Amino acid sequence: MQDGLVMVLCLLLGILLDVGLGEVKKFHPLVGFGNLANAIERRLNTPTASRWTGALAWCLAVLPLVALSLLMLVLAQRFSLWLAPVLHIVLLYFCLGLRSLHEHNAAIATALQAGDLPEARKRTSYIVSRDTQDADEAYLAKASVESVLENGCDAVFATLFWFILLGGAGAVLYRLVNTLDAMWGYRSARFLRFGCVAARIDDFMNWIPARLTACTYAVLGKTRLAWQCWQRQAPGWPSPNAGPVMAAGAGALGLALGGTASYDGITETRPPLGEGDTAKAADILRALRLVEGGAALWCGIALLSVLFLGGVIHA
Fold this sequence. Notes:
This protein has helices at about 1-20, 30-45, 50-80, 85-95, 100-115, 115-125, 135-185, 195-220, 225-235, 240-255, 280-315, and strands spanning about 255-265, 265-275. It has about 325 residues and is mostly helical.
């Protein structure tokens, strides 16, 4: 029980550190990793590159850093009883994006509520790849809510899941995997073969967290509608993990998301998500509260689980 309680306290403190400080403004480790991944990709992603080349690139980018994290934790555990927990907390802090998610999307909501469409368009362009230059409030609010729901899984819940399972090294492993998927996991001519392994590993590591995230959204929102949208709409999405997360999240909020979106001047019609009202500025804040409430719920469940299991064992 003692070790489990320590890890739950590390979980709580890592979240509080992220909420209190936000992401590192300079020399963020994930930014450095992105630069490393770009250098590896430029060197290995040649016109003749295969999936095996992509697998080698993935190993070169991810495995040394995960091994370094594990080595640091093992050494910290040997030298001091308190140093290892501190390191777990710091690693989780670097991997979480709860406050960052709030800051980026709350800024869009504030601009929309003030009627400042140019500022809202600029802010939205920072977090999505779709075109925003001529977008209206409904389009921008929809893009922001969808980003909150999807990144709530990637930047918050999946990170917490792997931290709970494997500690700080697990959080590091997941965030590196997720970052590589965001960089290489495209079905374009450049990345179709090279990024295939990165995309499949991310799908694997997100499979359980995505469904736990969908359950979290459903529990904290319109439960029945969230479940119905998850079952009906998720199979229509090409991503096996984004579908359940976004469909359940849209249903939980009672919003109609999905539909048309423009990318590089090309309009794409995507499957519907959720059911109900058109998204507005206030709905961005509702989506953020859904994610933040979910993080609090996970912390509560983790703490109660450790206390209950400890009591059962001692009984």
